[in-house]
Amino acid sequence: MSPHSAPSDDEAPGLYLHVPFCASKCGYCGFYSQPTAGRDMHRLVTALLTEVRRHHATPAVRTIYIGGGSPTSLPVDLLARLVETVASAWPDAREFTVECNPGQAGVEMLSVLARCGVNRLSFGVQSFHAGELELLGRRHSVDDALRSVRQAQDLGFANVGIDLIFAVPGSTLDSWQQCLESALSLGIQHISAYSLSFEPGTPLYEARRLGRIDSVEEDTDRAMYELAIDLLAAAGLAQYEISNFAREGFECRHNMGCWENRPYIGIGPSAASYWLGERTANVADIDAYIRRIEAGLTATEQRQQPNHDDCICETAVLNLRTRRGVDPADFQRRTGADFRKVFAASLHRHERDGLVETQAGRIRLARRALAVADSVLCDFSSL
Amino acid sequence: MDTKYIRNFSIVAHIDHGKSTLADRMLELTGTITAREAKEQLLDDMDIERERGITIKASAVTMHYEYEGQTYMLNLIDTPGHVDFHYEVSRALAACEGALLVVDASQGVEAQTVANAYLAVETGVEIMGVINKVDLPAAQPEVVAEEIEHVLGIRRNECFAISAKTGKGVRELLDAICELLPAPADRSSEPARALVFDSHSDPYRGVICYVRVFSGKLRVRQRMRLMHTGRSYLITELGKFRPAMTPVEELGTGEVGYIVANIRDLADVHVGDTVTDDANPAQDPLKSYQPPMQMVFSDFYPGDNTEYSKLRAAFEKLALNDASFSFVPQNSPALGFGFRCGFLGLLHMEIIQERLERENDIDIVQTAPTVSYEVIMSDGQVRRIGSPSELPDRTHIQELREPFVRLEIITSTESIGGIMKLAEARRCKLVKTDYLNPTRVMMEYRAPLAEIVYDFYDQIKGISRGYATMDYELTDFEATNLVRIDILVNGQPVDALSIIVHRDNAEQRGRKLILKLKKAIPRHQFEVPLQVAIGGKIIARETVKAYRKDVTAKLYGGDVTRKMKVLKKQKEGKRRMKSIGSVQIPQKAFMSILDTSD
Ligand SMILES: Nc1nc2c(ncn2[C@@H]2O[C@H](COP(=O)(O)OP(=O)(O)O)[C@@H](O)[C@H]2O)c(=O)[nH]1
Ligand code: SF4
Ligand SMILES: [Mg+2]
What we know:
The complex is a heterodimer. Chain A is 39% helix and 20% strand.
């Protein structure tokens, strides 16, 4: 046996809760979520809380993140119940995020969240152009987004982030710049910016296949990405992961935990866990999930035990997505492996080609490798 | 046995005209095998041969047949049917007195029929014309008999009409073999001489030599000598193929069989060598045939340099049973360490390549096959080169010669125009045209091998809608105006991408080639400039554009397992590529340089 061990049991995990409902399905969405209409949300929340309770023996969690789907599509009282229960189970979690949909999270709901100890909000704004919102199939308006964020700030939330999507069909470098500027004018702490991806099976994917819409030129997509990095950095939101930007100290701890390959516990339909050395996923079906939980069974459907090599590679790939990169000492501690040694050949090639660089002892992707990260990271995906 | 009652013969035919089926029927009619055993075409014994429907290695079988109250010993020596293996046809024929030239009654004379007939004539064996598949509704035995007479000079009324499938006429054919084919000359009183016409290596018994005894006899426990190497061995077993290996005490004059003599290494046995009695050796060896000429060369590199020795071991194993295949270490400035391999032809190369992949788990990057050239150096010295990269500096070359072949094409009259146009574009010179009948024509060309070895056959098949057949045989080397086209990738010359072409076509080929390469080389994170140079002068350039984005935007907890799988697959996709500097060149790029299509 090697000296490595899976993330140690005493390392506090992150906690993720998946609310699998949305008011309606967006045109590009590949997540597991179902329209709220005709759903017994009460029963689902009860099941979620049952699953939460099964983890009460876990003394501490580092972070809590409630996502979806749309947590804010729950009625206020249900959301409050969920948040309260979780918060009181782990009062010491340093970060408690809830994903919010503009237009759904009104003052009342936001106040409840604030009262329960939620200290970070992430709004699915996506765009500041009405036309793009429509094309993406979002239900909210630009004004909804502006209002929701303002209200949150007025209620005292000091860690607010938004998601943006670029390279939406029809967008230009200029329209994207306006979008970024609108975002910055909100005085928020965090932005996630994703290039639109066409997931098979989604209406947008079909529309492109049928030639009704065209994806943005690759060169433009690239320029948009580079623009985001520069513009946001100039405004004080430094890139800290491929798609994530934050003011100093406002990086999302929960997600950083994932990229550092720390453990996390996922709760709810389709939620994934990396816990006690195992990667598992809950059944991705609301009814099946509820049935199993109510029957006292585990909701786990997939189970995989990464071996030592998997652990090394996963840690490398995840770490390299961050701008901090790989800290060889950390890496050694976490995996028992010498990063420079196990990946010597790949490192040699990519360093020679200027795609990987070392800064202050940490190894990371060079700026010009960020937009083509997969072509570099794939060389760290197996030994 | 009295040589009077021995008949040694081969069956030669264009592919699919029924050689194997006829052999099976003969084995059956002579009681050598049962009908059920005949179901499987017994003489084709390797997987790949069966899949491709061709016979690569000659093998031999002994049958007994009653004719006019006498028992005859019929030795049938099988031959391969493909142009790459002409040499093996010749060596099989060298062990015979007669040959059955089989022609499909519904297809008529084809290019390989003609080529095989030439080989038989050159060897001096007696040829019997056999028209097969007369059971087919489309059979035209009279028309085909006329073609045979016209092209091959075998009298039409002397041809045998048979159906190998139903057996019709096969008994009569066996009778005729006894009646008409010459018996081996009776040299039983002379010192022993046997021709080695094939060999293979058996993991338990060492080398098995296939022999035809021409004079004297061989006995078990005799010391034999291989006249070429001068080495002697104790014969531990003699036998015949019936068709299973069946031991006998001796092999007399005229007989065909095998020798086991504790010979370890296949390389110790030269096919064509003469076996004699070590105690009472013959004066002179039998007339040997020319060693096979390797006409096609290609370099093989391990995709991963650390697999070099694995590749060597794989080649060693392949060479063990194929003396016509050769490999020598090769060091390319661009590709690193690998092997230059020599083949009889393109099909031979493909067969080796397929075995290599099937039997080993090695990633291989292979360069485009090239013919061999003759270089006359300034000092008069003659050199053979099997790769454009070996071409010496122009200032040291007096003359550069390329191989020429006699090319026969048989086709329908309506495709003549198209084929002639293609042939002309490929520098082929028409020697003669011969109408086999009002709708079929045979064209003979003098052709540069390099122009026809690769895709020419496919092209004429296309032009003639599958009708045309072709065959060729090397005649000589001739000086032509050849130049080397060099390719620079990212500013670096890549020797393995160089080709030698005629000056008249060079620029056009160069331009085409770089477009093909542009398509075959995947996009990188940076622009990859491609340049074509002739004689050090850049004549064309292209750029493989950089890809601008390749990144998964979202990767959170739930996606790790799936994402790792996707990345692994992406990494897999990089295999079978060779790094040249920081550029990854895939296998297909090396082959694309031969693609002359638009
Ligand atoms: N109808 C008919 N088919 C035949 C005859 N002889 C061979 N064939 C078929 O022709 C094809 C090629 O025969 P094969 O003996 O493999 O040809 P080879 O390539 O010369 O060895 C096979 O499908 C045979 O079954 C025949 O006399 N009549
Ligand atoms: S709100 Fe989010 S999870 Fe729900 S459908 Fe839209 S993109 Fe998907
Ligand atoms: Mg056959």
